[in-house]
Design a protein that fits this description.
By secondary structure, this protein is α/β, with parallel strands linked by helices. 36% of the residues lie in helices and 21% in strands. It is built from 13 helices and 16 strands. The relative contact order is 0.13.
Amino acid sequence: MQRMDAKVPTSATAPGPRPTSRPAPPTAAMVTDLLRGVIDPELGGNIVDLGMVPSVDVSDEGDVTVTVKLTIAGCPLRAQIKKDVESRIAVHPGVRAVKIEWGEMTSDERSAVMGRARWQAREKAPDTEIPASTRILAIASGKGGVGKSSVTVNLAAALAAQGRTVGVLDADIWGFSVPRMLGMGDRLEAERVEGSDRPLIRPNERRVGSGLLKVVSTGMLVDDEGTALMWRGLMLAKAVEQFLRDVQWGDLDYLLIDMPPGTGDVQMGLARMLPRTDLIIVTTPAVSAQKVAIRAADMARRSFLRVAGVIENMSEFTCEHGTTYALFGSGGGETLAHEIGVELLGRVPIEASVAAGGDSGEPVAISGTGAAADAFREIATRILTETAPPVSMAGCSARLLDAVAVALGPKPS
């Protein structure tokens, strides 16, 4: 009987190490859907529906090339559009790199874009009362007790102190605390508004320097702040939806949303209604807080929201003798920022003035002194100049609209 020996693989046929698996790249259609979250603030529509994205290509390796046509070559919004396009596409785990190829519209294409913009303004009512030019920042955390509401009101005050109009939406329906922290306890009222088929809620307002705060909270609807709201999850999401649809926000540079802790109905509803929202995650230096906060980042990415940065609150305490103590550990904010691939926007130390300002309704960022007040102001400046700068309305489309208005002559009386 003939003996059959097993064939031994040679070095040429021996299997090599398994390639590291990586997420599959998105399809061109998926990238196009992501780009619907990039809004042209002057035309009030997303760049896909406005016809500004003629082509999207995705390689097998996950390299995405997007062609974007601007109304004019020197559009001053180009840098902002570039940042928004890159950040929206980069949330997909299968994307390796993003390249934008720029073009300029022909006169016919510009006419078509203006036609779409006019049609949308006339026929397609916005889903919310939030202006398209508003920068929306959701201040979020994975768990309670990290000082998220304190960070929200102090950032809002610091932005307003720099001459901005800032909306504050207290979406922590059960745990509302914004009214006390800002010293604004008046009840909300609704009024008839010209051009609206229903009464709209008027936000409570407070001047801060040359800026303005506009605030809405369920704490401004109850008899007193000790009243418990016993609502289920669906009711919470509906309340936030009403604050977005039925409040006469008016012009806003920023809208800061004080989110409830966790990743529940309110967070999912916000992602659906305001897909252009950016998240800022608040954590403490403790490892336990950092590990919970990463879930908020995971929720944002699953909902294709951009995480703009991390703020480490209660970072350390310095006593009157100058000795510094890391009461809750150290490095948690930096570790979280590195793990999710975003900036650490700043660290806010523990100071009694922060708590005292919240209790008295005078946020420390308005007129306080010390390291915490300075930290809030520095973070606000960083948001204004780098992380989420306000939208300039003196850009390319605005000039185009002005030219059209001049060509058409004065409005009919």
